[in-house]
Amino acid sequence: MLKAGYCNVLIVDDEPLFRLALRTLLSESGLPFQIIGEASDGESALMYQQKSPVPELIFVDMKMPGMNGVEFMRQWKELAKPQENNPVMIALSAYQDYGFVREAFLEGALDYIVKVDMDQPHIIPILNKALELLEKRKQRPAAGINSEVSGKDTMIRSMLEHGTGNEEAQQKLLVDMGVILPEKDRVVAVVLTDYQQQKLDSVASAELIRTVLEQVLQSKQIGAEIVSYHVDEYVIVLHQTEVKSYMYLWNQLNELFTVVQRRLSNYANLTVTVGVSPTGSKPWKTLYEGASESASLRFFCGGGKLFFPDSRKAWEYENTSKVLKESELAEYTQAVLDALNNPDPDQWLKCLNAWSQHGVPAIKEQQVRKMFSDFVWKLGSFMLTKECQWEQLSDPYRNPFQFMEEGKTLEHMWSQLQLLMEAIHMKIHESPIQVKSLLYQAKSYIDHHYGDGITLTLVSNWVGVSESHLSKLFVKDAGVKFIDYLTRIRIQKAKDLMNTGMKLYEISESVGYPNPEHFSRVFKKEVGLSPAQYRDKMEQQK
């Protein structure tokens, strides 16, 4: 008989012994959970969406026969009614399932459990986190997981940002909320999400980072408050640190964030930069500013690193003498502008590389950003002499200042500038006949090799231009992205093969999709029907 007030749990796993082990752990946890069902595959588990009561918490294995865990999570969301809260999902994985767990997080999984670590110390914190989230949903049913900002977080943010004279009163209020912050040996860390070549869902990525931070802090038995500032910034306020020495603290935090980096890399191909404040009894606002200053070194040194206050001092000491003189900067920028007049793109690229290798005129980020901004103004003036304006370029280059501001590191900004200049050079030198010829060659290659492992890199090398150049040609002159054109060709070929008697997985492979599940998702997105549904519809129309 079901108990009122208990959380309804569904276990989805194809291993009976593991389902039994998880059932036992839940019953012995002393927490208010009751199991309303079990399923050995994703398709069977989906039927619980139509039953009463609907599960509030689902443990789902990533690798199962038939429908795997990720596909189950995706379909559950698609079938759910708009007004319903999706159940909390916890992924179950083996060590080798990194790819599946990565996708699970992007589908909204709250956390993951590695099966070999299935014991009370590992599972209890995750269960408590699930209960806390479910309780918040009951109190504010319209709020999602990422819109729930507690009064505690608001209080800590205010203390870090404003640093009023009421810090003592604020800390007393935090004590009432169960948060005890130290009076001395205080430490703050700022965690920044680094630039990713492959864009991921920002909300899902932010939730994953918070989950990993919580897990690692718990495993190291380090008390801390994690406060979200933006989707790409978290602040960690440590409860109590044992500062035997500065080197001891460095080693402890270095070990902590090394684990964080490894897990984020494994599960979502993400990296973060961490800046650590000085230690001491200074106001929390001062410590937060110190941590942010440490993290800002990412601009010059790149992401994926841990920076302490001494890191910036050492870097500035080493690089102050290497700054570019104003006269040298003027020579390099003029050389780049002059080279843009040459139809050969290798000339301006050679000059730009020479400039980037010789450095920048400052060791402060804002001054370096101003250098790039000033040069963009010069590029605009140069374009006017060629009867060309920014509005004539394709997105995102028609808003050059915004495009350059997206650079999170110096290396990234040089890359952005190269892309911007490539677009300008192409605009002022390329004739319509050349564009049509390149596009014809690229499309012809795709039309004849769609069943192979075609990539933008492969096709651009074949026609003899850069990836970004070919990508922009497709958008500007074909009106479609490269990947969208390739997808349309493949799906059309797949539709043509539906009458041949080939099996669906054979069609999938023949049009360039070795993974039938991925083929099915892409086909449904393009056609509105799954491959099986499309074939059935064709049979009915005969």
From TrEMBL:
Keywords: DNA-binding, Phosphoprotein, Transcription, Transcription regulation. Residues 440-537 form the HTH araC/xylS-type domain. The modification 4-aspartylphosphate is found at D61. Residues 8-130 form the Response regulatory domain. InterPro entries: CheY-like_superfamily (IPR011006), Homeodomain-like_sf (IPR009057), HTH_AraC (IPR018060), HTH_AraC-typ_CS (IPR018062), Sig_transdc_resp-reg_receiver (IPR001789), Tscrpt_reg_AraC-type_HTH (IPR020449). It comes from the Bacteria. PANTHER family: ARAC-FAMILY TRANSCRIPTIONAL REGULATOR, HTH-TYPE TRANSCRIPTIONAL REGULATOR EXSA. This is Helix-turn-helix domain-containing protein. It comes from Paenibacillus baimaensis.
